[in-house]
Specification:
By secondary structure, the protein is α/β, with parallel strands linked by helices. Helices cover 26% and strands 35% of the residues. The chain has one domain: Rossmann fold. The chain is built from six helices and 13 strands. A nine-stranded mixed sheet has the order 2-1-3-4-13-12-11-8-9, with helices on both faces. The chain has a four-stranded mixed sheet with strand order 6-5-7-10, with helices on one face.
Amino acid sequence: MPVALIDYGAGNLRSAAKALEAAGAGRVSVTADPEAVLAADRVVLPGVGAFGACAAALRAIPGMEDALDEAVRRRARPFLGICVGMQLMATEGHEFGIHRGLGWIPGSVRRMEPLGLKIPQIGWNEVEPSADGLIQPGWAYFVHSYALQADNPAHVAARAGYGGPITAAVQRDTMLGTQFHPEKSQSYGLSLLARWLAWKP
């Protein structure tokens, strides 16, 4: 079955689909159909924009949140959240109010407060893994003003430095999330996508 790339009007779908295909995905299904998510072997949730607007757009698709929970948490399908797609894995986001996330990674998404640096962070930054795993050391492309603060440090798969440490990736069970954009991170991003596509957690 194809990789399901969820279309909820809040992601860089074309670039993400092309990167997944270049990394070895047999077929990428860009879809807003919950049944397609349930039928897929792997699920990708991209995201660009504000946390609350993205959460609302995802929940505006009838049955999509339930399908995600069924596919990822109950059926243990490998999942990848990208940028705001990763942030939505958290309990809540504090951007223009407090908004409920998917609750898969206990914690909150809050505005970054880097000392002496501009917000948003835009550009390349070094990714430092917390342990051996899917995330390898290297340089990736970031675009964000908010960062996930995980309650459990064991869920933080990698950090980056931007006026202090920020969460660059999270991992739990069959779920991986990256604050950076693999589809914009050239060879580093493609190699990560290839590892995720081959991942058998």
